Structure to design on (351 residues):
């Protein structure tokens, strides 16, 4: 496994940042070095595509929002914005491509919807499908309407799952490549199935275990991790455990080490930091192992492919902390190699 990785950093652009930043990261010792930047407005989430063609959202609440195609020239270590396509809904905050990279899908927080974009010759085409959801939740302030926050394909690509913070639902759609294409329906709305979480949970991000047996969801409002058995599109809850015990009501991201042994969940507003869990290999249950304080507002984090480091992006501190992961306990130790020259970082991803 290569020790030198390329790290993509997305940052909000209302302040000093200008878009997507490219760094080199040494997964052997934790060193990071700036390489290049591509100007993209508010790139709050990125999908690395095939490693050459990259897709990022432009998350705007009031102005039009977009899904962007970027090209990574590995030889010259440069990022170039190729095109952008309108989402026709506000505040897209997540983008994902299917395993064959034929479609990109965005979760639109403000629009309460899902946008689908065909990919032609690795470039995003105009949106071919917009699924608008309805409903509300128990929290009359933050759940007045649907707020889609994450979309993710099942490991086999047969289904797309979407978390709706506004209605406490996880939605599932069948995918249909035969009927897809420009003007077609890649996501079959008539097959939509919802999985209900406890009232006021606010499901935000989800991740599959490397074994593909389990899905884990971090709930923004309740601060709980919901654990599901996964079986061919069906979800069965088997455990709920708190990541946020301070009542911040702003839990954010969730991730698992490549070896499947440890799960992490970030929390904001109060006691900002990352909850650490060990995963039972036999049944997928979680046990709280510890807690690591971070900078303010740790919106997103990423784990190196070798499982040695976790990088956490604290938006309000304009800080990316590099933590070394204890391979036995899962605990985090600051490696003293913080990245401090990106204003308001909100997203991290390795190529």
């Amino acid at each position: 496994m290569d020790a030198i990785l390329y790290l993509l950093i997305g940052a909000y652009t209302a302040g000093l940042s200008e878009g997507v930043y490219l760094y080199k990261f040494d997964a052997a010792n934790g060193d990071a070095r700036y390489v290049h930047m591509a100007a993209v407005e508010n790139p709050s989430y990125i999908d690395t595509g095939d490693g050459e063609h990259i897709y990022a959202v432009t998350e705007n609440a009031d102005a039009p929002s977009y899904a962007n195609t970027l090209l990574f020239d590995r030889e010259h270590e440069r990022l170039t914005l190729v095109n952008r396509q309108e989402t026709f809904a506000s505040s897209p905050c997540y983008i994902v491509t299917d395993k064959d990279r034929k479609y990109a899908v965005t979760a639109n927080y403000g629009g309460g919807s899902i946008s689908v974009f065909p990919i032609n010759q690795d470039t995003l085409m105009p949106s071919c499908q917009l699924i608008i959801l309805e409903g509300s939740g128990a929290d009359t302030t933050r759940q007045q309407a649907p707020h889609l926050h994450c979309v993710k394909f099942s490991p086999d690509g047969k289904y797309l799952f979407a978390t709706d913070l506004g209605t406490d639902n996880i939605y599932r759609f069948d995918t249909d490549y035969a009927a897809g294409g420009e003007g077609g329906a890649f996501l079959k709305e008539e097959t939509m199935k919802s999985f209900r979480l406890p009232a006021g949970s606010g499901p935000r991000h989800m991740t599959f275990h490397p074994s593909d047996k389990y899905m884990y969801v971090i709930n923004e409002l309740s601060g709980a991790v919901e654990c599901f058995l996964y079986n061919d599109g069906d979800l069965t809850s088997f455990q709920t455990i708190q990541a946020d015990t301070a009542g911040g009501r702003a839990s954010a991201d969730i991730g698992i080490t490549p070896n499947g042994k440890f799960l992490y969940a970030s929390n904001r507003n109060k006691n900002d930091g990352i909850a650490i869990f060990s995963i039972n290999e036999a049944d997928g249950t979680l046990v709280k192992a510890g807690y690591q304080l971070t900078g303010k507002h740790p919106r997103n984090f990423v784990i190196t492919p070798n499982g040695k480091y976790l990088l956490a992006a604290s938006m309000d501190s304009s800080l990316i902390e590099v933590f070394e992961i204890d391979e036995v306990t899962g605990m985090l130790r600051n490696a003293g190699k913080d990245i401090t020259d990106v204003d308001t970082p909100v997203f991290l991803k390795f190529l």
